[in-house]
Structures are given as C-alpha cells and as structure tokens.
Amino acid sequence: MMTAFPKRFLFLLAVAAGVASACQHPASQTNSDLQLSPEFIDEQLTGAVAQINVLADSVPADRMPRTFQGDTSVFSNTGWWTSGFYPGSLLYLYEYSGDAELLELAKAKLAILEKEKLNKGTHDLGFMLYCSFGNALRLTGDTAAYKEILLIGAESLSSRYNPVVKAIRSWEGWTYPVIIDNMMNLEFLTQASKLSGDPKYREIAVTHANTTIKNHYRPDYSSYHVIDYNPADGSIVGKKTAQGAFDESAWSRGQAWGLYGYVMMYRETGDGAYLDFAKHIASFILNHPNMPDDRVPYWDFDAPDLDEASPYAAEYKTYRDASTASILASALIELSTQTSGDERRGYITTAEKILQSLSSAPYKAEIGTNGGFILKHSVGSIPHGSEIDVPLTYADYYYVEALIRYKRLLEGQPLLGRTP
Ligand code: GLY
C-alpha cells in the first residue's frame, strides 16, 4: 500500500504546476477550430501520469484496479470485464510521457491478464484484451510477444457468435442476451482479421453491427440495453434493460457505447451506413433535453424525469456518469474527423466541453486523492446497487484516450497513432 508520495509523483507534480493552465486557446496551427490549447491537454495528461503512479502504488501484483469506494480501493481479478483498462491506461500514458516505468508496470499486468485469452465465458474480451494487448502491440510493435495472444483471444470471442442470431452472445442466463455494450468488442475482431489475414473475424463484427442496428435501436436512435434472442431461430424474446432506469429508457453509457461502436465501424469498414448511423445516435445524445450544460450525462437520459413509481426516483434522479462523458468525448473526437463543416464543429465543441468539465471540479480528483483514480462521479449500475457515484477504471481509460486523441488533432497526427 502507498505510504508516501513516490519521487516520480513529486517530479510530475512539479512539472504539472509549471504548465500554463489556459483552457481557451487561439487557433492551433493545424486545426484552426480547435479551442483547447496544447498546454491545457498537456496539463491534464501530466496530471494523469502523476495520478496513475499513485494508483500503481496501491495495486496488488495479482489484481487489477476497479474503483475506490468509501476510502477503500476495490480490485478485481483478471476475469472481470474491466481488467484491460488499467494496463491500457498505463500504455496510453507511457505513450504520452515516454516513461519506461509505466511500460514496465503495464507489462507486469499483461502477464497476469494473458490467461484470459482462453476465456470463452465472456463477450468482454475486446475490453479486456484489445485495450491492453492491442495497445501494447501498437506501441511496441512486438508481434512475437502479442500477436498470438490477440488471435487466441479473438478466437475465444468468436466462439460466442451464433450465425442464426447473427450476433455474439453477451451473458450467460436470459435466453440469448446481446447487450449494446458488445459493439465495443468488435474492434478487437476487425483488428484480428488484419493481424491474421483471416476475414472471418471482421465478418462476425460486421454482421453483429448490422444485427444491432436492426434490433437494438428505436426510431429515435436511442438504444435498448439488452435484446434477448431465441437462439434456435433468431427471433426476439425480449427488449429489456439491466443497468438502465426502465426497459424503454435510454441508459446513458449504452448510448455512448453504441456511438463509439458505429464511429469505429465506419473507420474500420468505410461503410457510410455506419457513419450515418453514428450521426443519428450523436444527434439523439447531443440534442437530448436532459443533456446537462456541462455535457456530463445523467446515468440514464430519462433519470431526471422519473416519477415516484420508479424505485430510483427518490435517490438517483440526478446522478451523473463521468464514464459516459469520457466515452462520448473520445467517440466525438473521432466522429469530428469523419465529418466536416458545422457537423464537425458541433462534435468537437461538445467533446471540448466534456474534456473541460471532466478536467475540473467536481469530476477531476486532486492528485493523491480518490484512490489514485483520475475522475470521480461515475455510475456502474444503479439497478444492481453497484458502484454508484464512484471512480471507475474505464472512465479514466476513455478520458485519457480522449486527451491523447485531442493532442493528436492539435499536432495534425493520425488520430489513432500507429495501428498494429
Ligand atoms: N459493459 C458493462 C457496463 O458498461 O457497465
């Protein structure tokens, strides 16, 4: 456990203190409509490096950080769906800082995570293995170390695909549940096809994405959380929620997962139908009457309107979810690169507003507090009474990813850096 601030933390704090904190910025050289300054982005990333070093000092060798609740750090085993985010964040921050210690910390976590490549009991292998090993391969180019692990993992994920349903099974239980979150695991498959030369992974990703357009979305382009299928004929058994306020509500993180997923699918396939769909989802989210001014969504877009009959009305109407905001920021930055004119400006302006909000109180934690997590005020699952108004490892991961993406925009670099 951490007993004192490590030396590297004090050094980084000094660097951070020396960085100008100007938030609004005149036109950058490469992107004249970007409003956040390089200094602002550097300040946030330097702070994130300092904070992840605080977190690193508390993490047991065989565990992954998950959250911090009531002054207690909560860790998970590597089989938990969030296990890839901490090594992924270490790798992004290694990419930013060049600090080889962060790479070593990441590699130590990759070593305990590797066994999940054989895990056929979860659909979350994209989160677990691509955010971690995918970034490791991207940054080190070490195919000998990482390619086989990724391909074995992609094979495990593909084992959950049913050609009758035309989708990957998310959970056990239910009948054949597919959740909107599963869009996020498809990038792992498109990359596996590139790595292996075998198109089958990409074909599963495309088919799953098309099935999700057909069955998960309502006419207003909001998404159900869970579609439960009959695996014998692919018919729909039920359209439900698990983590939202009610079955017909728009659970916020699910809307963000969907947006990110279709932006990514357009990048991976060049199919304009995915871009059109992503724009419709973005329009639902950004024009929602319950979108707060600071652009950090409530945990469910329908939460503020809950009436007394809802079990969540009394206590949870106004809880925000910083994890949704982080995912949105990262997705909108990429969507801005796929669009032009007023559309592009709308997306990037919202991403900038989110980054400004998350980079300040009440969302941004003081360095050395919050158990070493960067952001406060996320929600795991209110219906399950789990991780309510706490830091979450994936909120930090997508916040750091968004900052790095924005930095690349400022520098006129390819948004994703080098791909594996
Ligand atoms: N994939 C689980 C969640 O978003 O909470």
* Beta-strand content: 5-15%
Q: What is the name of the CATH topology of the domain at 27-57 and 278-420?
A: Glycosyltransferase
**Helix-strand pattern:** HHEEHHHHEEEHHEEHHHHHEEH
| Coarse shape | globular
Task: Kindly name the structural category.
Answer: mainly alpha
Report mean pLDDT, rounded to a whole number: 93
**Helicity level:** 40-55%
Major sheet: order of its strands?
Answer: 5-6-7
Largest sheet: 3 strands, antiparallel
How many DSSP H or I helices?
Answer: 14
CATH architecture of the domain at 27-57 and 278-420: Alpha/alpha barrel
The CATH class assignment of the domain at 27-57 and 278-420 is Mainly Alpha
Bound molecules: glycine
Number of strands: 9
Radius of gyration from the alpha-carbon trace, in angstroms: 20 Å
**End-to-end gap:** 35 Å
Poorly predicted segments: 1-30
Walkthrough of the structure:
With 420 residues, the protein is mostly helical. It has a domain at 27-57 and 278-420: Alpha/alpha barrel (Glycosyltransferase), CATH 1.50.10. The protein is 50% helix and 9% strand. It is built from 14 helices and 9 strands. It has helices spanning 7-18, 38-56, 85-97, 100-113, 125-140, 143-158, 186-196, 200-216, 252-269, 272-286, 313-316, 322-337, 341-358, 393-411; strands at 64-69, 72-76, 161-162, 167-168, 177-179, 226-229, 236-240, 378-381, 386-390. It has a 3-stranded antiparallel beta sheet, with no helix packed on it. A hairpin with a 4-residue loop joins strand 3 (161-162) and strand 4 (167-168). The structure holds glycine (GLY).
